[in-house]
């Protein structure tokens, strides 16, 4: 069969798709990857054929566009909260999940995020591609709903492949329940309205599968997944970190306990927001009896006066190669970094920022006993971080629980084992073109 992967032009989002794309190719299926032009080099570096769709994402410009759309969408609300509240997809406090909050959330998310990443030109290109190439299955990034529209336009089966916790699926169920409890004339659904209008341009109509897929492929272990009623299939996370040459120092076992400090690819410069600065992080780790490998670039090191003697700084090293030698990892809570740590059974110290699903992930990992996060409000001090890292290193329960989660990950179907499942689901869901 023919399989089209649709991804946002962000390397971490694409990296999650690579192992499954290669599993399908190895099984004899044709595979292509569609994304904005910014990602073409990363796609081809993974040995996969790339097709550009839409204008470049231009992430720096997209941040400004996001703010502009956010402000414009807020104007539609009677009493808009602050900017962070407008996009708090991770909100789970019952007293905050009011109809007004849910309406405002989907108004802003639709205008500022979903429409931005599925611009008309991008969706036009995706539909033209699927109608020309006729894929049997489209696997799409949660943030690229143009993938579901394009699949519908050509009759292909389609599924989401998650990058992170399924906050959209959970919040969508809450919003639909809220809408169903209201009189029909008060059931305004901005996400459905936009998708219905967009799908109608290609002769289709709205269905909830345009939001959450005909099914969802999820690499998060079941014990760390938020509950939803959506159909989903698990897949083992297989780390892919892009092209890399392993440094010579990594070929030898460490002389003492090793700690990884990483800001991740997605949020290198916003780790922890106001939680901790890079100098504070290095100060905290510099006093430990351990070797610290810190993945910091020149811009981040510019604010550091002196790098402690026990800290080795590198611009990049693949976590899949580094983490097997580590006793702990300190990071911002991003999906790719957390998944790498789970795969290798490494206890985690999470210094989360307030982006997307990072706080709920940090809470779930702490609850599992495989990691810790700062408690209380205010900036994290070097002493506070040092205490968290020391606790994770010295209390055996963290290593035991991290090893338990590693075994849970290993028990999930590998990408190769998922291929026949996808073949069966595709045959069941594919319609005539």
From TrEMBL:
Record-annotated Erythromycin biosynthesis protein CIII-like N-terminal domain positions: 22-264
Keywords from the named record: Antibiotic biosynthesis, Glycosyltransferase, Transferase
Family indicated by similarity: Belongs to the glycosyltransferase 28 family.
Protein name: Activator-dependent family glycosyltransferase
Keyword match Membrane: no
Domain Erythromycin biosynthesis protein CIII-like C-terminal intervals: 281-425
Alphabetized SUPFAM superfamilies for the sequence: UDP-Glycosyltransferase/glycogen phosphorylase
Cross-referenced Gene3D superfamilies: Glycogen Phosphorylase B
């Amino acid at each position: 069969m023919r399989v089209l992967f649709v991804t946002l032009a962000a390397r971490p989002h694409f990296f999650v798709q690579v192992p499954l794309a290669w599993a399908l190719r190895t099984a004899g299926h044709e595979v292509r990857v569609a994304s904005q032009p910014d990602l073409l080099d990363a796609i081809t570096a993974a040995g996969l054929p790339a097709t550009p769709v839409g204008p470049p994402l231009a992430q720096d410009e997209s941040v400004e566009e996001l703010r502009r759309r956010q402000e414009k969408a807020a104007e539609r609300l009677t009493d808009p909260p602050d900017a962070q509240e407008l996009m708090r997809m991770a909100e789970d406090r019952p007293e905050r999940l009011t109809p007004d909050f849910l309406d405002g959330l989907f108004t802003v998310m639709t205008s500022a995020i979903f429409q931005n990443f599925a611009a008309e030109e991008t969706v036009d290109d995706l539909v033209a591609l699927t109608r020309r190439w006729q894929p049997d299955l489209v696997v799409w990034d949660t943030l690229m709903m143009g993938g579901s529209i394009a699949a519908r336009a050509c009759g292909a089966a389609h599924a989401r492949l998650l990058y992170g916790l399924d906050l959209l699926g959970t919040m969508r169920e809450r919003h639909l329940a809220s809408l169903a409890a209201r009189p029909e004339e008060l059931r305004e659904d901005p996400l459905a309205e936009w998708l219905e209008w967009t799908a109608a341009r290609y002769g289709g109509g709205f269905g909830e599968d345009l939001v959450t897929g005909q099914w969802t492929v999820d690499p998060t272990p079941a014990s760390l997944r938020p509950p939803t009623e959506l159909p989903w299939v698990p897949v083992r996370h297989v780390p892919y970190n892009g092209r890399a040459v392993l440094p010579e120092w990594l070929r030898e076992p460490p002389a003492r306990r090793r700690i990884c400090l990483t800001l991740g690819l997605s949020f290198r410069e916003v780790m922890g927001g106001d939680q901790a600065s890079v100098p504070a992080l290095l100060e905290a780790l510099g006093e430990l009896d351990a070797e610290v490998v810190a993945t910091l670039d020149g811009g981040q090191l510019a604010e550091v006066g002196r790098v402690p003697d026990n800290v080795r700084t590198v611009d990049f090293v693949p976590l899949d190669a580094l983490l097997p030698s580590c006793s702990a990892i300190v990071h911002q809570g991003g999906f790719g970094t957390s998944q790498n740590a789970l795969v290798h059974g490494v206890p985690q110290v999470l210094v989360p920022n307030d982006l997307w699903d990072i706080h709920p992930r940090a809470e779930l990992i702490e609850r599992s006993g495989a990691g810790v996060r700062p408690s209380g409000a205010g900036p994290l001090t070097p002493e506070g971080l040092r205490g968290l890292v020391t606790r994770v290193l010295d209390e055996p329960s963290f290593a035991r629980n991290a090893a338990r989660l590693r075994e849970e990950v290993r028990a999930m179907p590998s990408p190769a084992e998922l291929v026949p499942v996808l073949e069966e689901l595709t045959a069941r869901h594919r319609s005539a073109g």
